[in-house]
Amino acid sequence: MFKNILVPTDGTQFSQDAVRRAVSFAKDTGASITAFYAKREFQNPSRYAGGETAYLHPWEGEANEDKRAEEILGSVENLCQEAGVKCGKLTLASNIVYEAIIDAANNSNCDLIFMASHGRRGLSALLLGSETHKVLTHSKIPVLVHR
Question: What's this model's pTM, rounded to 2 decimal places?
């Protein structure tokens, strides 16, 4: 049924639970996994509203994001190896996470996005939004949400 499943993760407990379930699902269906992490995009210089320019050190932030991505995606890769599931890793730099997830799924020829729901409800969900909700409403690829 599914051949390549995109599994976006941010390293939180919710995501780790979804990753474990996605690996099990992939094993049961004979699919491969593309593990995905959206890195923050760093820009230099940045201007504050008061007109001051702040010179950031993007290489420090980028190095930290690269290290975090490798740790998080490495743990997904390990789970896949233990289960005998083929796994690829992908990162994209973007400050609009849901778009990066959809782009990653399209660019990797994924036929399913398997992601966690962070369980926000009520007013906090309305005000904060949810990357999962945005992916659900914008993706043309099917999305399976693990709660």
Answer: 0.83
- The maximal CA–CA distance of the chain, rounded, in angstroms, is 56
Percent of the chain beyond pLDDT 70? 80
Output the 3-class SS for 47-91: ECCCCCEECCCHHHHHHHHHHHHHHHHHHHHHHHHHHCCCEEEEE
Cβ within 8 Å of residue 133, ≥6 positions away: 125
What CA–CA distance (Å, rounded) separates 64 from 50? Answer: 29
- Of residues 52 and 102, more confidence is placed in 102
Q: Which CATH class is domain 4-146?
A: alpha beta
Structure tokens at 39: 């890195």
116 within 8 A of 86, measured Cβ to Cβ: no
